[in-house]
Write a structure and sequence with these properties.
Strand order of the largest sheet: 7-14-13-9-10-11-12-8
Number of helices: 29
Bound molecules: phosphoenolpyruvate, magnesium ion
Shape: elongated
Oligomer: single chain
Structural class: alpha/beta
Largest sheet: 8 strands, mixed
Mean pLDDT: 87
Strand content: 15-25%
Low-confidence stretches: 1-12
Length: 759
């Protein structure tokens, strides 16, 4: 479009600019006059048709997220208003809305997707120009002009109509078209259901708290382009200054952040960006509306770009536009709004540090992006806050204070739910609470099955904030302390002293119960903000965990020293993650013993007892030489990773993740083999992946011979409840029979058997 504009002689372009400014100022006057929603829309269609010299101008607005309704028209039959409807993607109007792209044709009836609406009488109009009415990626409707003459609208006419649509979008947001009619119910009032993905189980009812509040543009039409351009230039200057200051003051161990800032600087200095906004101003927009128009275009592009790198860059530009808008409108990130009761955080994404700052105040978290293994998800899980990820477009739809129900179990979010949904949801929460009370009564009781087998139930943790759950859940100890969380939530490598203090507090809080500290497991999805990103085609199978620890021993040594100092005089249990072959374990163990020796030489108190174990997360380790099983003080199966490598199915890829059942006979048989190898060498064995917290899976693991399970604290009650009701010996027989019968998974047989148990 820019190229086309350059071909237009300046004098004509200038005249058209003035025309469009005139149109916008007429539009503003119309909107400033008090009137009902319908009346205003009617006047606007008349005004646009008149200004653009077309016979028809129509406004279609979304009645619900998939249905557009003709809400006002100049030129089509008036009986069609509020009668003609189409689905998203249906007809030319529906296609404009679906693709968020204009359609401009001189011969509409022969255009792909054309649908004739007889009630409108539109058959006599050949030319069609439709542009989306959208605000920051939120689809609000479609603005259409049509004329009898077969002619293609010029790029400038398209552009002008887009600018008008942008103003309409702003006015819609401000409630300019709200009326009694249902079709004009104000935006952000309807119930909306979002289907995302489960990030952390649990249910919560509360009120929306937007991590980044929406910026409101009160005046989209500019009076004087020169003033508006000067405002824009000053704001861009301030933005550049702030990006430069951030870069100058940055901590340059923090490479990734620096790269983002460099990208910001590049965009902030981009003439193209500023020029496009200036052109929008020439067309009659105010400076902030011009920023928003470009931001909407960026968001529309973001939806179309499959390349993750490009998407990230567009995301940077989007962030930058937000900053610019805040400068222009004077609306800071902190709007002074009060956090509502029972806040549910809604954000596009959030860093682990920010999430920790909110802490347990939050009842739930809903993100537009995020992945199951993202840092935010790890923190939400550690804080036991229900989390739904991939809830597409929720930040555009939700307003601060809106009622919201988060169903972390199903990955579903109800925004502004109606009463029946709320009531059903409350029943669900009440049932879960009642079950928790039942489980609490088991807290002091052991997990002993009716056949007399005792299972040790431990909890997974990663933050100091998790430790109170030790008492609450009845866990016998911490079977997995993920130490990387402390590294993830900072923007620099923590120091030895800080870590030693933290580990000491953990041991103190555990009050003599065993805590298994897993050394740093970074790489794969857990990328430290200050670590140079590795460009690896397959990070889950790349340079991660113990591999990093052995190749670059500095940080691991520091961590081992911190653990030894923290333990001083108390027992210490250290576990190395992602050991794929015996030699890695021996090497890591030697590194730890060397640190023990060093501490002894320095005259520091040593742990009272030291256990050194390994995580079995790759099938290869199950086949390691016997010497490994003899040397390891204990082994813990990291089922999340083991399962992904066993089935070659990425644990973060929703498409393949659920394809393979944990109770598949090959996986259970494999676990049985590991149990057997550990039994031969008397090596204590536990299971600490997520599956240990699923009652049926936990039961089957126990039946296969696992005697220690480590899980989320909230799972301990349900797992214990089930174990105490059944005979593991009987269950083993069920599993063996199903396996011998050639079943793919033992699940059907186990469920069938469970249904006959007194649970
Ligand atoms: C596992 O892989 O099962 C495990 C417990 O480790 P993480 O989930 O932290 O990779
Ligand atoms: Mg793992």
């Amino acid at each position: 479009m820019e190229a086309a504009r350059e071909q237009i002689p300046a004098v004509i372009a200038d005249r058209e600019d003035r025309e469009s400014r005139k149109l916008l100022s007429r539009l503003r006057d119309t909107l400033a006059t008090p009137a009902k929603g319908q009346e205003r829309l009617d006047r606007i269609t008349h005004l646009i048709a008149d200004s653009m010299g077309t016979e028809v101008c129509s406004i279609y607005l979304f009645r619900d997220p998939t249905t557009l309704e003709l809400c006002a028209t100049e030129g089509l039959k008036s009986e069609a208003v509020h009668q003609t409807r189409m689905k998203l993607g249906e007809g030319l109007v529906g296609r404009v809305a679906k693709a968020s792209q204009p359609i401009n044709t001189g011969d509409a009836p022969s255009e792909k997707g054309f649908r004739y609406m007889p009630e409108t009488g539109e058959e006599i109009f050949s030319s069609f120009l439709g542009v989306p009415i959208q605000r920051l990626g939120e689809k609000l409707g479609v603005l259409v002009v049509q004329s009898k003459a077969k002619r293609q609208f010029s790029d400038d006419e398209v552009y002008a109509l887009e600018v008008v649509a942008m103003v309409l979008a702003e006015m819609t947001e401000l409630g300019a078209f709200t009326g009694d009619d249902e079709a004009f119910a104000a935006l952000h009032k309807h119930p909306v259901l979002f289907r995302g993905l489960m990030g952390q189980e649990g249910a919560a009812e509360g009120h929306v708290w937007l991590h980044e509040p929406r910026v409101v543009v009160a005046n989209p039409v500019g009076d004087d382009p020169d003033t508006e351009k000067a405002r824009l230039a000053a704001a861009v200057e301030e933005l550049r200054g702030s990006v430069d200051a951030m870069l100058a003051g940055g901590d340059f161990t923090d490479k990734a952040q620096q790269e983002v800032l460099e990208a910001y600087r590049m965009f902030a200095n981009s003439r193209g960006w500023q020029k496009r906004m200036e052109e929008d101003i020439d067309r009659g927009l105010s400076a902030e509306a011009a920023v928003e128009k470009e931001q909407s275009a960026t968001r529309a592009r973001m939806e179309q770009v499959p390349d993750p790198y490009l998407r990230e860059r567009l995301q940077d530009l989007d962030d930058l536009s937000n900053r610019l808008l805040r400068i222009l409108t004077g609306q800071g990130a902190d709007t002074g709004a009060e956090m509502p009761e029972n806040p549910v955080l809604v954000a596009r994404n959030i860093g682990p540090g920010d999430l920790l700052d909110y802490g347990r105040k939050l009842k739930g978290v809903v993100l537009e992006e995020g992945s199951v293994g993202s840092h935010a998800a790890v923190v939400a899980r550690a804080l036991a806050i229900p989390l739904v990820i991939q809830a597409s477009r929720i930040t555009t739809e939700a307003l601060n204070g809106d009622t919201i129900l988060v169903d972390g179990d199903q990955g579903v979010v109800h925004l502004r739910p109606d009463d029946t949904v709320s009531a059903a949801f409350r029943d669900k929460i009440a049932m879960a609470a009642a079950a928790q009370t039942r489980y609490a009564s088991l807290r002091e009781l052991p997990a002993v099955a009716t056949c007399g087998t005792r299972i040790g139930l431990h909890m997974n943790a990663g933050l100091m904030a998790d430790l109170p759950s030790l008492q609450g859940s009845g866990a016998e100890g911490v079977g997995l302390f993920r130490t990387e969380l402390q590294f993830l939530v900072r923007n620099r490598v923590p120091q030895r002293g800080e870590l030693a203090q933290l580990y000491a507090r953990v041991l103190q809080a555990a009050d003599g119960r065993r805590v298994v500290f897993r050394t740093l497991d970074i790489g794969s999805d857990k990328v430290l903000p200050y670590m140079k990103p590795q460009d690896e085609p397959n990070p889950a199978m790349g340079w991660r965990a113990i591999r990093v620890g052995l190749d670059k021993p500095g940080v691991m040594r520091m961590q081992l020293q911190a653990l030894l100092r923290a333990a001083a005089g108390r027992p210490l249990t250290v576990m190395f993650p992602f050991v794929a072959q015996a030699s890695e374990f021996f090497e890591a163990r030697a590194a730890l013993l060397a640190e023990v020796e060093r501490e002894r030489r320095l005259g520091h108190a040593l742990p009272f007892k030291l256990e050194i174990g390994a995580m079995l997360e790759t099938p290869s380790l199950a086949f390691a030489p016997r010497a490994f099983f003899e040397a390891a003080d204990f082994i813990s199966i990291g089922g999340n990773d083991l399962k992904q490598f066993f089935f070659a199915a990425d644990r973060e890829n929703e498409r393949v993740r659920r394809r393979y059942d944990t109770l598949d006979v090959s996986f259970l048989g494999f676990l049985g083999m590991i149990v057997e190898r550990c039994r031969e060498t008397h090596t204590p064995l536990s299971f600490c992946g997520e599956d240990a917290g699923r009652p049926v899976e936990a039961l089957c693991f126990a039946a296969m011979g696992l005697r220690t399970l480590s899980m989320r604290p909230a799972s301990i009650g349900p797992v214990k409840h089930l174990i105490r009701k059944v005979s593991l010996r009987e269950l083993r027989a069920v599993i063996d029979t199903a396996t011998a019968s050639g079943a793919q998974s033992v699940r059907p047989a186990v469920m069938d058997w469970l249904a006959r148990q007194p649970v």
